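During the reporting period the student researcher (J.K.) took over the structure-prediction task from the postdoctoral fellow and processed the backlog of single-chain submissions. One of the processed entries is reproduced below for the supervisory committee.
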Amino acid sequence: MNTFPPLTTPRLLIRRLCAEDAAEIFAYRSDPETARFQAWGTESLKQVQDFIESLTQIEPDTPGTWFQVGICLEETGALIGDCGMRFPAEDERQAEIGITLASAYRGQGYAAEALEGIFDYLFFTLGKHRVFGSVDPQNRASLALLERVGMRREAHFREGLWFKGAWVDDVIYAILEKEWKARRDDAR
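J.K. obtained the following structure tokens:
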């Protein structure tokens, strides 16, 4: 079972996660600044190992699941982050995304480049209609990233999400397949 095709962008390789990635993921997701906005991967190395193991039992686009992939530097193969794709069971034509980069690799355009590769995959390979992301409005870097890749702000839910023992605001960004295609056509 391995139908996720490795994706390449000018500087990155986006691939399935493997057991050897667990320690690196735990290291960057445990950084207090990063962990503040993370829903998983911050409690223990075992939690990350178990999650990666669970991914071997599912394929991308499985309704009701999160599918996480690694973001690696094309030149060296070093793992620098991960990107999750959730496929809602209630609407299979949509996908939710989430992305995390190790702090040393932020601010260099890698997250935008990775999302562009993921959007191409979700829209052109899997035929999704809409891709959305849920972001804490205090995570200004993520808000700016989603806008940079062409997503638009659709909603701001006040204290609409129970997260880490508290009610927090939740901002939703999205992009439609036709909007992504137009953006890609304009780039040519």
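The committee noted the following: The CA atoms of residues 81 and 101 lie 4 Å apart.
J.K. will present the remaining backlog at the next meeting.
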